[in-house]
Amino acid sequence: MSARSKARKRALDILFEADLRSSSATDLLELRPPQDLSQGEYSEALIRGVSDHREKIDELIVTYAQDWDMDRMPAIDRNILRISIYEILWCPEIDDAVAVSQAVEMATELSTEKSPSYINGVLGRIIVLKPSFAL
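The structure corresponding to this sequence follows.
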């Protein structure tokens, strides 16, 4: 597993925990000792980036995740989408295909049988429409 893959997984763990606790991911991040964050810099960048842009990210999920309300969507899928959408829209150094591939891989490993294809579809729509988003 690559260093960035490990960092995404660690960021996912904290975002997922924050989602379940209805708390701030950045607050949880601050409570962690520095050595607790494997691949700390990229994990931290993902957590802070998702937190900073969460309103827009969630708006995009609601808009393009057809047939799913945010509340009905599995929390793991919701947070995988948040990380990937952040990377696609605000991390120009990450290729869109890599962000999607990593999201599908995490969903395959951690979520339901249908999650990988569903996440792939949502992210595909985000990529196609990316040039039209006002960020």
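The longest helix spans residues 3-21.
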